[in-house]
Structures are given as structure tokens and as C-alpha cells.
Amino acid sequence: MELYNKIIQLYRNLSIRQKLLLLFSIQIIIPILFMGIILYRTTENIVTDKSVTYAMDLVKMLELRIDDLDREIKESTQDILYDRFLYDFLVDEEKRSTDILSED
């Protein structure tokens, strides 16, 4: 209550020019603060939504890359499986290593 009385007394002691400046300042500051708060929250929501969307797109792209890599590996192993020259080479190599181990 004492603070309120001091503020009232201070206001009464101001000149008309100072009162008008004070009122105009308040009328300008309050709307700017509200607009700033609304703009901040709107921007925050937009940035959050864009970040989530971007992260989801990155995950989808990564999933596609992994699927491509998996498909390429399967194709390569199928090529190796059906390559007769490579098959004969591996069988010969296995026979050689078996012979070396049996000699020891």
C-alpha cells in the first residue's frame, strides 16, 4: 500500500509533458512486448516442426542408403557365389591349406 501511494504521489508531481511521455511509452512498450512474445512462440513452433521434419527426412534417406548398400552386398555375394573361376580358386586354396595343415 505504501508503494502504491509513493507511485501515485510521484505521478502527481510529474508535469503534463512527462505524464504524456510516460503514457505514450507504456502504450508503445506493452504492444511491442506482446508482439515479441507471440512472434517468439510462433517462430519456436515453426523451427521445432522444421527440425523434426528434417530429422525424419534424414532418417528416411539413411534408411534408403542402408537398403541400397544391403542390396549391393547381396548382389556382389551372388556374383561371387555363381562365379565358377572364383569357386575353383577357393576350392583349390582350401585344398592347399588343408594339405599344409595335415603335413604339420
Notes on the structure:
The protein is mainly alpha-helical and 104 residues long. It contains 3 helices and no strands. The longest helix is centred in the middle third of the chain and has 66 residues. The termini are far apart. The model has no long low-confidence stretch (mean pLDDT 89).
Our Rg estimate from Cα atoms comes to 39 Å
Low-confidence segments: none
Net shape: rod-shaped
Strand content: under 5%
Class by alpha and beta content:
mainly alpha
Total individual domains: 1
Mean pLDDT: 89
Helix percentage range: over 70%
Question: What is the rounded distance between the termini?
Answer: 104 Å
- Can you count the helices? 3
Main sheet summary: none
Count of extended strands = 0
- H-E order: HHH
Short précis:
By secondary structure, this protein is mainly alpha-helical.
List the helices and strands and how they pair.
Blueprint: H1 2-13, H2 16-81, H3 84-103
Task: List the defining traits of the structure above.
104 residues, mainly alpha, single chain
